[in-house]
């Protein structure tokens, strides 16, 4: 596409590097900023720069945090005997939104993915193991809440094996048909597994 | 939604003010920036700030431009006898991409929309009229290429009436069924009008 201005072209190039944003959407966003007051653009860019410069990660669970240690790790109301292992900070947010979990977390920062060059050492797995072995009497259960994908399963398998020697119960979040979903439209793999892994009716 | 950090919350609020971007998408974009190198965020915000601070509008046609006058207005290859009136700069880009038009443009900066408080004086209509009256011997035809919506039609109607006294031919872009589209799936208003406004088979 021909742009009427070099400045527009550069901005579109930068914005379209964001995930899920193509050149057309980027152009729409950029033209929107041009039409609006300059203060809007300044507020946007300042908030992003401030975020990127000051963001911290909790020294215990590696979740995004404003402090050295995140609010969940610092809280006295959380059950410190259950630790939930997730890929990213947004998984913590998603689980917190359910209000069904009162334990603590550990954010890996991704999953093992040889194709993308991510091995166990790129993730916070070593830190997870030393955290559990240090608090072996406190942490009773580790929940693996990873994506139900090939990479997620590989990572869960790897962590489970590493946890064998430590005296903790390892569990995984339940997989099966979505609540409110239609059996007819559930993919066959999920449906098949939900029959094999059926549970007692309560 | 509960955010793990005030910085994240502020960034999400700013990003989600962009058109078509909700809180969830904003969070995804913001977390992406946090995960990437800080230079990426700096490159993005710098390009947006630079754009907003230095963007110019052509003094003749009000299209976005790097110079005082845009490349199209300055070009000697363009047919200065046909002037195409559009809403925004991206309409110029869309028409330029067709390679079917060699005339010049005039960007209104929007359409008349009483609901949004946009009257004729908020747009570059006065400038369009004085431009045409100044070049009355040069500009022979004015093409109204506005959106086929209520607001676009109102604006076209208004401009057409204002152009009555000036000695120019006023045309409108053709409306009808989309090329490659299926008659069955064309909305009834478009299909109905395309029958009423049928043209000689060539």
Write the layout of secondary structure elements.
Two copies of one chain form a homodimer.
Chain A lengths: L5 H10 L7 H13 L2 H17 L1 E2 L6 E2 L5 H4 L4 E8 L2 H10 L4 E5 L17 H10 L6 E4 L5 H14 L5 E4 L15 H9 L6
Parallel strand pairs in A: 3-4, 3-5, 5-6
Antiparallel strand pairs in A: 1-2
Helix pairs in contact in A: 1-2
Gist of the model:
Two copies of one chain form a homodimer. Chain A is an alpha/beta fold and 202 residues long. Helix content of chain A is 43%, strand content 12%.
Cα gyration radius of chain A (Å): 22 Å
Compressed to H and E, one letter per element, the order of chain A equals: HHHEEHEHEHEHEH
Percentage of residues in DSSP E strands of chain A: 5-15%
Instruction: Report the total helices of chain A.
Output: 8
Shape of chain A: globular
Assembly state of the chains shown: homodimer
The CATH architecture of the largest domain in chain A is 3-Layer(aba) Sandwich
Number of strands of chain A: 6
What is the distance, rounded to the nearest whole angstrom, between the alpha carbons of the first and last residues of chain A?
Answer: 60 Å
């Amino acid at each position: 596409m021909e742009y009427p201005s070099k400045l527009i072209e550069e901005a579109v190039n930068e914005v379209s590097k964001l995930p899920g944003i193509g050149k057309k959407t980027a152009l729409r966003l950029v033209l929107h900023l041009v039409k609006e007051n300059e203060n809007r653009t300044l507020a946007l860019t300042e908030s992003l720069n401030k975020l990127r410069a000051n963001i911290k990660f909790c020294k215990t669970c590696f979740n995004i945090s404003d402090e050295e240690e995140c609010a969940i790790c610092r809280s006295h109301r959380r059950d410190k005997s259950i630790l939930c292992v997730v890929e990213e900070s947004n998984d913590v947010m998603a689980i917190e939104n359910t209000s069904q979990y009162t334990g603590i977390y550990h954010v890996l920062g991704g999953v093992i993915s040889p194709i993308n060059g991510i091995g166990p050492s790129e993730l916070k797995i070593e830190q997870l193991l030393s955290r559990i072995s240090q608090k072996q009497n406190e942490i009773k259960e580790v929940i693996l809440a990873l994506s139900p994908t090939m990479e997620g399963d590989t990572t869960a398998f790897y962590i489970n094996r590493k946890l064998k020697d430590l005296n903790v119960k390892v569990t995984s979040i339940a997989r099966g048909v979505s609540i409110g979903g239609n059996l007819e439209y559930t993919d066959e793999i999920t449906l098949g597994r939900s029959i094999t892994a059926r549970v007692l009716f309560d």
